[in-house]
Design a protein that fits this description.
seven-stranded mixed β-sheet; alpha+beta; globular; single chain; 21 strands; five-stranded mixed β-sheet
Length: 588
């Protein structure tokens, strides 16, 4: 039951709002509960063809040869697609906002980097015929070394997972190998702490398992247009991605969706739309591409695994004086949304707690696993779990009640956050008090009197301290870096200037020129390619100090691989109208 606590948040809500706080029925609810809602697979088309893909059985292998001759002659087969048939075969989802490099092929070219990577697409009159033809495709693989652990992937000499990022980490602004947050002097605070605790937390990948698997139907319309019935969670992403990959102007695609039979983040990757549209383009008929349940569970993009190290400096009175976090996102073989997850994670640290000295390093590592993607709160959910388990351990170390320990360390209005922004509209103290009351969890009268509106934003809590920075985030081996290992920013420094402005792919309007679109094999003559496109302290605890581990030193990345041959295709711009970038905080 929804409970609006006006006694605690009198200034937070207008009682005259029409929707918020009111019991209003969703417009689509009657259709859902009566079975009248039409999903993408409820649309029928005459002459519908079915597309299935041949997937890699290896986590890492070189493709020696592909023989599709028998499959092409199989009953009902209308077309066999390979990498050379895809106009723009390499893409990354966030290229739509000019973030990151195109690194993932729609169909593998000369290597595969995870079990289940698509290599060949079969288009046939029926699903059964497409599945039978799949079995006739002969692919000769040369297995190669693979790496499945994020920290092993970042070590020198590790197998290269993603040739676009040969050191196995995502490059931010073509300069940094991870997301960095620095506030104050963490090492000095650790040295002065009464106790230092460090723990490792490991999260497993999670499959979304939606009732409706990923899928779409594409069909020709008039005037060279194509209609696409999709279960995508973000039609604008799916449309833009598809337009880029099949090299058509976005106004030639009519995407229809809005009904998603379970998504949870797993239907933002456009796993089926580009090949379905391409299949419709080359056959002139409607094409349906739907993942079966096995494909959805094994290759449908999970929430990525995350490894998190948290080290805290704690005083006996319960105050946390330093927090250091080192986190690794397992992107799998390709980037997709992992690079954005690391940004979200860094923006959330160190949790809802005021800590005067904070350092974090959040890495995105490539491994030979299925590429990971969004899932409800990704980038924050796992680290929140780790932080709260850590808080329970810290409370035990300080000999404090875990509820009161959180109240003691919670943000209050006016506190300075490590991101150099003042905290406002904080409410953790009130939330803990209400939760304790509902759970009949006894907390002291002093804890019950605390408020998020008082005790914050004064003295040290409102200041930006002198902050120690290091150059470990710079790409390249330590001996090749020009800057010194550390520098100290004066107290009060609110913004750290980049020494090198990022170069965005596909930028327009007077910024960097768009990159060229790579082509991996000669286009086949059989296919006509369309035009391009404070509270007080408590009593001391008898807990004995625990020695902290030494700070992690990120390994130097391996030497970069030789550059790829210059692309042959002409320069093309990215698709999409001017939009707001949540990554860079400006319009482009």
């Amino acid at each position: 039951m929804l409970e609006m606590r006006k006694d605690l948040f009198a200034d937070e809500r207008d009682d005259n709002l029409n929707v918020i706080g009111k019991g209003i029925q969703r417009q689509d609810m009657p259709g859902h509960v009566t079975g009248l809602t039409r999903y993408f697979d409820d649309h029928g088309f005459d002459g519908l063809l079915h597309l299935k893909v041949v997937r890699s059985p290896h986590a890492s292998a070189r493709i020696r040869s592909i023989d599709v001759s028998a499959a092409a002659r199989a009953p009902g087969v209308k077309r066999v697609l390979r990498a050379a048939d895809v106009p723009v075969n390499k893409n990354t989802l966030l290229s739509l906002i000019n973030f990151g490099k195109d690194d993932e092929p729609s169909l593998a070219v000369d290597k595969v980097h995870y079990v289940g990577e698509p290599v060949v697409a079969i288009i046939a009159e029926s699903e059964a015929q497409a599945l039978a033809a799949k079995a006739l495709v002969r692919i000769d693989y040369e297995p190669m070394p693979a790496v499945f652990d994020v920290e092993e992937a970042l070590k020198p000499g590790a197998p290269v997972v993603n040739e676009t990022y040969p050191a196995n980490y995502f490059e931010y602004h073509e300069r940094f190998d991870h997301q960095k947050l620095r506030f104050g002097d963490v090492e000095r605070a650790f040295a002065g702490a009464d106790m230092v605790l460090e723990h490792r937390y490991q999260m497993s990948p999670i499959e979304h398992a939606p009732t409706e698997t990923n899928g779409s139907i594409a069909a020709p319309e008039q005037n060279g247009r194509f209609v696409v019935h999709s279960c995508a969670q973000g039609l604008f992403f799916a449309l833009g991605t598809t337009a880029k990959i099949v090299a058509v102007e976005s106004n030639r695609l009519h995407f229809i969706g809005g009904t998603v039979g379970g998504g949870f983040g797993g239907k933002v990757d456009s796993l089926t739309e580009p090949l379905a549209v391409l299949g419709s383009m080359v056959t002139g008929r409607p094409v349906r591409f739907v993942l079966d349940r096995e494909e959805e569970m094994l290759y449908g993009s999970p929430r990525g695994a995350e490894r998190i190290y948290i080290k805290d400096g704690l005083m006996r009175d319960g105050r946390i004086v330093a927090r250091s976090i080192r986190s690794y996102f397992d992107a799998g073989a390709y980037t997709r949304l992992s690079s954005y997850a690391a940004i979200k994670c860094t923006a959330h640290l160190p949790g809802p707690y005021w800590i005067p000295n904070v350092a974090s390093d959040v890495h995105v590592a490539y491994t030979n696993r299925c590429p990971s993607t969004a899932m409800r709160g990704f980038g924050i959910t796992a680290v929140d779990f780790a932080l709260e388990v850590q808080m329970d351990r810290l409370a035990e170390a300080a000999g404090m009640d875990p509820m009161e320990f959180r109240i003691l360390n919670a943000y209050r209005d006016g506190d300075m956050k490590p991101h150099r922004r003042k905290a406002s509209n904080t409410a953790l103290i009130e939330c803990v008090q209400v939760a304790a009351g509902k759970a009949n969890w006894p907390i002291s009268e002093q804890a019950q009197r605390q408020s998020s509106l008082t005790g914050g934003g004064a003295g040290e809590r409102a200041q930006i301290p002198a902050t120690v920075l290091d150059a470990r985030g710079q790409i390249g081996r330590p001996e090749t870096r020009q800057s010194g290992p550390t520098q100290t920013l004066p107290a009060g420094t609110s913004r750290i200037a980049l020494s090198k402005q990022p170069v965005m792919e596909g930028a327009r309007d007077g910024r960097a020129a768009p990159t060229q679109v790579p082509r991996y094999e000669p286009a086949r003559a059989a296919m006509t390619t369309p035009p391009p496109y404070p509270p007080p302290p408590t009593a001391p605890s008898p807990y004995q100090p625990v020695a902290g581990q030494q700070p992690h030193q990120p390994p130097p990345p391996p030497s970069p691989a030789a550059p790829a041959p210059a692309p042959a295709a002409p320069a093309q711009t990215q698709h999409g109208a001017v939009r707001f970038s949540s990554v860079f905080g400006r319009r482009r």
